Amino acid sequence: MSESANLTSFICKWLGTHSDPQHLETEEKLRNHIIQHDINSCKRSISGDSIYICPWKGCNKYQSSIIKLEEHLRQHTQ
Ligand SMILES: [Zn+2]
Ligand SMILES: [Zn+2]
């Protein structure tokens, strides 16, 4: 019962897949959790152009490619 500290440090706020934030114990677990999400589901088409909307709760940014969105998502998992 002594390892309950810092449970709030690593949180997945990927909306759509789970409505409530998921708490992970370590950064590694969070990253392994994140890659199970379907990043392709973030794709949107606007006027023929594809953009990738960040699925993070409270983040309204979007990127022009899936690579850039992956890079952007790292900001949320640090
Ligand atoms: Zn998640
Ligand atoms: Zn974001």
From TrEMBL:
Keyword Zinc part of the UniProt annotation: yes
Keyword Nucleotidyltransferase assigned: no
PROSITE patterns listed in its UniProt record: ZINC_FINGER_C2H2_2
SUPFAM superfamilies, sorted: beta-beta-alpha zinc fingers
One Gene Ontology term of the molecular function aspect: zinc ion binding
InterPro entries in UniProt: Znf_C2H2_sf, Znf_C2H2_type
Sorted UniProt keywords: Metal-binding, Zinc, Zinc-finger
Occurrences of domain C2H2-type (ranges): 52-78
Name recorded for this polypeptide: C2H2-type domain-containing protein
Origin organism lineage: Eukaryota, Fungi, Fungi incertae sedis, Mucoromycota, Glomeromycotina
